[in-house]
Amino acid sequence: MIVIIGAGLSGLLTAYRLKQAAIPFKILEARSRIGGRVNTVIGTGKTPMEMGATWFSAQHNNLIELLQELEIASFEQYMDDSVFYQRDANSPIEKIQIPKQSPSYRIYGGSSNLINTLCQKLEQDEVLLNQAVTSIRFNEDKIQVIAEDIFEADKVVLSIPPKLWAKKILFEPALPEDLISIAKQTHTWMEDSIKIALCFDKPFWQEEKIPATLFSNVGPITEFYDHCNYERSKFALCGFMNSSLKSLAAAERKAIVLNQLKEVFGPKVLDYIAYEECIWSKEEHTFEKSDELLYPHQNNGNPIFNNTFYEKNYFFLALNQV
Fold it and tell me: Is 222 helix (H, G, I), strand (E, B) or coil?
């Protein structure tokens, strides 16, 4: 049997391929939900709000092929021809024209539609939640994976960020030092991000013919976009907040966010019906403190993660992207 650690997109896709090949497996997921860094929160009025992975582009061939295989639709992200922009703290908020952008796309029904569709291809007892793996022991003929319960495996696939397994899982015997060193220096996508979304009864920005898009070099929100569903029957704005604000109390952070939004969009923005945020550095099953400063995407896809260890019983996946 193959044990897959992590029920994010990579882990679930690996399981789906094993299922197609009739190879037995189990997924162990530390969280009480599947999806990892894909997390669609359904807000008031059943509005999907993405707290994690949201957009993809034409270059993401593998994802596009998977969506087609699973018959999951996608749609183009709405972008304004003009946007709100603040250059620096001493500059006013301006409305400026921007050149036409290469389109980005979103998954119909929310990013978690892909996660849930993959999971539905599996049996209920093949995906086990609340199973945080603490150690992996490689014996002569079997591998022991120790979590809330103990599992025996012939092979193990790691589908969690390298820094996470390098710092949180004890391997017996120990993994090579160069591998552990690179893993600890591998940036985890989204680990520094704060996602924020507000949903509304009506798209006031559309009715008032003002941009939904905001770019600010000041913050607290640095990027903000139209986040309505494909049918444009559910209305939301969604984007990113300056990650330095994670140290503030939730009420204080929300207050300065709303103050910024009121200044940009006017008082109607305060008529939101739901406010959601996700500070990924507070997600213990995503974030682990780095020993040194890492730059974005550092060591993502490093060739060392393509190697196998322990006489080919143990496989690493070079994943880090959703």
Answer: strand
